[in-house]
Amino acid sequence: MISASWKSAGKTTVSLGLLRLLAEKGLPVVSFKKGPDYIDPMWHRVASGSECYNLDTWMMGGDACRETFARGCALKADSYALVEGNHGLHDGMDMAGSDSSAGLADLLGLPVLLVVDGRRVNRGVAAQVLGLQAMPPKVRIAGVILNHVASSRQESKQRQAIETFCKVPVLGAIPSDASLLLPERHLGLVTVAESPDAEAFIRSAAEQVERHCDLDAITALFQRTFLPPFPADSRPSAEPSAAKVKIGVFRDAAFCFYYPDNLDALRCAGAVLVFIDTFSSGSLPDIDGLYIGGGFPESFFEELSGNTGLSKDVRERIEAGMPAWAECGGLIWLCRSATRDGRRWPLAGVLPVDIDYQRKPVGCGYLELESRENSAWFLKGERLRAHEFHYSKPADGTPGLSCQFDVLKGFGLTGRDDGILYRNLFASYAHFHAAANPHWAERFFNLASRFQADVSSEIAV
What we know:
33% of the residues lie in helices and 27% in strands. The chain is of the alpha/beta class.
């Protein structure tokens, strides 16, 4: 695991550089991101050329994290597995630290390569490392990389202090470099699709890691890790069917927030995924269901609002009973309009809801939800964990619309409700992970299969 003393200390830069170097050496590398993060994994995927999977103990549970890690490692024989932590090593909600990056490292038996922000400190940096070593859950900090180092004199003092007092080797010292600052916005990093210089940044990160870090010593950390036994993949395999059920997935710069495990779960349930670019598609292809993930549709309201052909086709298909699942950005796009910075944008108009953007986050963090009724998607009384991050909310709540959930933790749509139900559509501000919603893919597939059968019957008649 690559972790840090605190948020924005440089762990993503080091992770991207190391992933690129391992991939260039032809080593089988897989990566993971701790927490409910969509954007860092996109950067990982570009750096390594392989998918990056999320691990979140609060949302997914410990067993599911172990299973996901084992499944990811099994994708490549003798793989090098890199887990990037989130926030600081010991940051989390649980006072015992079970949901922290340290808790995940402890769960998976991983050594930690600690990135330390070296600005404005010299020998006192050792106090940071000592504190991180002492705080439970205790993990093995196997090496330290100093970041934002101002001079060789500062590096020497920091290196000597850490190796003397903490008994941990310093495996690198990266100087301050403005070109290694990733652009950020309210949700963290900007997406790869919105970063024309993404490849140049990753290349620069790799060069800095190669130049200023001991790659042989870092690579040896992977080779000295002995993983505990992991549970077998418990996901059922789908029975082969004659008719292929096709689920469309909006996937482009506006809608890019998808957990790889969610897409894999749909495939495992038996679905064929059809990816749709909302900028170039004026209508839907031949599909039996539609999955619209989150993203930053507000950055593309002009393009999305202008694509009236796609909006009309989606409205007609959903009215005809096609199942659809929409999260956050997907929910927003399905609404009648959105107002941001004083300008109102007409949107798909599936839902009679107008969205207003606020200056501060409306919902930020984890969600806990309880189903208030039986539906095609959930059973009454089911409790689910998810997460949200949105600056918008319905202008007038959800008048006249049925909602699936009572909000027990978080905000959702209104602070009380979340999950709009309309025909076979479920639309929510919640981002769900398949491991925390284990029946989702099967239910989605079954709904799409029934819709396909209904359409086939109508054609036959």
